[in-house]
Structures are given as structure tokens and as C-alpha cells.
Amino acid sequence: MNLEKALVLRTCANNMADHCGLVWPVSVTVECRHWQPTKAHENGLAGLLWGVGTSAFLSVHADARWVVCEVAVADLIALSESGMVKFQRAQVVHVGDKSSAAHYLLMHRASYSSTSPPAAVEVRPASGELVVSHEVFDVASVSAAVGAEGNLPAVTTQTLQTATYGSTLIGDSHSQLVAGYGSTETAGSHSDLTAGYGSTGTAGSDSSLTAGYGSTQTSRSDSSLRAGYGSTQTAQEGSNLTAGYGSTGTAGADSSLIAGYGSTQTSGSDSALTAGYGSTQTAQEGSNLTAGYGSTGTAGSDSSLIAGYGSTQTSRGQRTDGGLRQYADCTGRQQPDGWVR
Fold first, then answer.
1. pLDDT category, 320, cuts 50, 70, 90?
2. Which of 141, 156, 171 finishes a domain?
3. By residue range, what is the domain housing residue 151?
4. Report field, pTM of the whole predicted structure over 0.70
5. 222, 240 contact by CB (below 8 A)
6. How many angstroms separate the CA atoms of 108 and 92, rounded?
7. Are strands 312-314 and 280-283 parallel, antiparallel or unpaired?
8. Where is it chiefly localized (predicted)?
């Protein structure tokens, strides 16, 4: 039994880089060149001792690389977060996914030490207010979830909240929230939110939101929103919005909007809008608009517009028997002479 060394679990990006840019090897020794023996995460390597403690610093991405490394016990510095330790150098002994890393730790821990991992503790700031809570990760829980096929699936909980640095999560029952750096997410029951750096997501019940860097999404119940970098989306119940970089989408109930880079779309209920780069579309209820790059389309109720690059379309209507009837005959493409026909 090796009592002088311990196993530490951590995660890296799929290219083996950590959040500070250090690329970890798949074997041999890794060392921090700017080591400082402090209780701060900076200037050192860090991970979960024996794979037990806060999940705040474990990657939630499906393609993350889960690393098990061997560290001299004398080199470990306990950090304030539950189970987290800091060290200057380590020997990488395993690289894989969550399941394989958990299996490796469980199979090899007895060879190192019988010492139990430190108990989980709550970390409170000076104000006495509890910091963002995180799921407690334990490799034993991963092993206990072995399925009928003998695989090691991920840890499952009824309510999962996972945040990275500076994130805020608020979820009702059966919600699953995963936030990137500095993100803010608020979910109703049975919702699933995933946000990139600095994103803001607010979801109603049974909604699914996926946001890129700096995106803002607000949805009612049963909606599905996917936003690219810097996009803004607002959806009513039952809507489906997909936005590219810097796009803005506002949808009524049961609408479907797909926007390209920098597009702006506003729709009434039961509408379907598809916009190319830099397009602007405004539709009333029951309309169907498809715009090319830089096009502008404005449709009345139950209209259908198809625009080519740089086109401008406005649908017309007339009153018949006291009701508003909208024509769907505006289809144009910009011609070489500048006219749309």
C-alpha cells in the first residue's frame, strides 16, 4: 500500500487544456511552472481528492476529458471548497470519460491509502450568506449506478444544479441547470437550461434552453430555445426558436423561428419564420416567412413570404364581410436593375 501518494480527479477540455490554458499530458508528469503555495486556485494545479467533493470545478461538457493523477500527499494543500486540493506537480495515470475515471479511482484507491476523504463542508462568505450550492460528486455514486449492461452511467439526481465560477442557479423541482462562467439561470419545473459564458436564461415549466456566450433567453412553458453568441430570444408557450450569432427573436405562442447571424424576427402565434444573415422579419398570426441575406419581410395574418438577397416584402390585406383577409401573394427577389418583382 502506498501511503505517501493519493489520487486526484479533475477535468479538462477535449484538447486536454484546463481553464488556465495549461495543456495536460495523457501520461507522465505535469507541473505548474508558476507555483505559489497559497489557498487560491491560481498558480497551481487543482482537483478532487479521491474524486469526492464539490462538482463546481468539474466540466459538464459531454466531450470533457476526465483525468486521474497521482500526487504526493506532502504536496497537497486543502482548499476551502469541499474535497478540493491544490498541488504543484502530478503524475497522470488515467485519461477517459466520467465513468472510466470513476472506475479507475474505485479500483485503485485501496492500493494507495485507507484514509477517508474529508467530509463535505459548506463554504460561506463573510456576510454569512451561503454561496451557490453545487452537486456533491462522488465516484462511488457513479459506480452504484451501474446499468444492466455493466456500463457506468453518469450520476443522476432528481434535481441537478451545476455551476462554474460566478454562476447563479435557481431551479424548481425536477429542473436541470448547467451554467458557464458568470451565467444566470432561472427555471420552472421540469426545465433544462444550459448556458455559456455570461448568458442569462429564464424558462417556464417543461422548457429547454441552450444559450451561447452572452445570450439572453426568456421562454414560457413547453418552449425550446437555442441561441448563438450574443443572441436574444423571447418565446411564448410552445415556441421553438433557434438563433445564430447576435440574432434577436421574439415569438408568439406555438411559433417556430430560425435566425441566421444578426437577424431580427418578431412573430405572432402559430407563425414560422426562417431568416438569413442580417434579415429582419415581422409576421402576424399564422404567417410563414423565409428571407435571404439582408432581406426585410413584414407579413399580415396567414401570409407566406419568400425573399431573396436584399429583398423587401410587405404583405397586404383587405376587409371582407367584416373580417380581415390577408393575401399571400408577395414573393419577390431583387433584380439586377434594383427592382423587386
1. very low
2. 156
3. 1-156
4. no
5. no
6. 14
7. unpaired
8. membrane
